Amino acid sequence: xxxxxxxxxxxxxxxxxxxxxxxxxxxxxxxxxxxxxxxxxxxxxxxxxxxxxxxxxxxxxxxxxxxxxxxxxxxxxxxxxxxxxxxxxxxxxxxxxxxxxxxxxxxxxxxxxxxxxxxxxxxxxxxxxxxxxxxxxxxxxxxxxxxxxxxxxxxxxxxxxxxxxxxxxxxxxxxxxxxxxxxxxxxxxxxxxxxxxxxxxxxxxxxxxxxxxxxxxxxxxxxxxxxxxx
Length: 230
Description:
Elements: H1 4-15, H2 20-36, H3 38-51, H4 55-67, H5 75-78, H6 81-97, H7 101-120, H8 129-137, H9 142-158, H10 160-167, H11 171-182, H12 187-203, H13 207-212, H14 217-229
Helix pairs in contact: 1-2, 1-4, 2-3, 3-4, 3-6, 4-7, 6-7, 7-9, 8-9, 9-10, 9-12, 11-12
């Protein structure tokens, strides 16, 4: 069994190895852990994302997690369902707590990969996802608001149907939240909202969906113009 400290050292050896041999050995250890103990691998990586004090370790671990969530890799789907749910909760909680922009982006992308996997598996429903995200959208904390729009951006790119399913019945509220992001007092949140809207509009294919968001477009270009003039 691999402890938290040992796994963290293994990740650090991948990030900044003292030698190429050490890096190769560390990579081999991670591959072996995933192959022989997949539950420990995924839970260990998710624990590093949430608990490591080293931002580079958190970032690399988030990248490593999403790299192992591909739709053609069935390993994650074979670990116990309670373990899968535990990992999802860890990601959502860290999305809320994380302050580093790059780590937030990697976590958000991992969440979008998991959402895509669940959507393709009719027996898995991540019902907690959108309610959790919508709470972030109305938070007084700028990091949490930014995390919401970053995650919407990644969902629009990797799992657009999740947004369709969750917002068709409440589209007006969702649109107002997007507009609120463009008018946010924090520039980073504004930029995240802008990126999310662009990704959403690029991902929508039905004319009725595009027409619904058409009144956002002038505000979108105004926001882009304001950013360019600053």
